[in-house]
Design brief:
Elements: H1 2-37, E1 44-47, E2 52-57, E3 63-69, E4 72-77, E5 81-84, H2 92-100, E6 107-109, E7 115-117
């Protein structure tokens, strides 16, 4: 009986992680298939290469058209879609904060404690060297 116990434990130690990883992988594949079958025009997606775009046409079985910029539509494999992402919505508060922000001025502090504006410098160009003349 003890002779069978060690091989049985060894098989159990190897089999349990293998079964658990297989189950996890099957769940991930099912979730990816659900995502790919649920894609519809207007969905914002990210591809496996990190490209963001909006689904323009999802009528193909294996391909999908993604608009990556206004008027630029590219064709991708459905398998290349990694996930759906939430569209970026710019609120009125964001634009109002940017409009109210004052322009930064470059100010330097002098030794006297009085702040002066930083002097504007221009690039100085050296005259061209003339070869052969001394």
């Amino acid at each position: 009986m003890q002779q069978l116990l060690l091989p049985l434990l060894l098989v159990l130690v190897l089999a349990v992680p293998l079964v658990m990883s297989t189950r996890k992988q099957k769940k991930q594949q099912a979730a990816q298939q659900d995502l790919q079958s649920s894609l519809a025009p207007g969905d914002r997606v990210m591809t496996t290469s990190g490209l963001y775009g909006t689904v323009a046409d999802a009528s193909g079985d294996t391909t999908i058209d993604i608009e990556i910029a206004p008027g630029v539509v590219t064709t991708w494999l459905r398998l290349a879609v990694r996930e759906k992402v939430e569209p970026v919505v710019e609120t009125d508060e964001d634009t109002a904060d940017e409009a109210e922000a004052p322009a930064e001025e470059s100010i330097i502090e002098t030794g006297s404690g009085i702040k002066d504006e930083e002097p504007q410098t221009t690039a100085q160009v050296a005259p061209p060297l003339e070869h052969g003349k001394k």
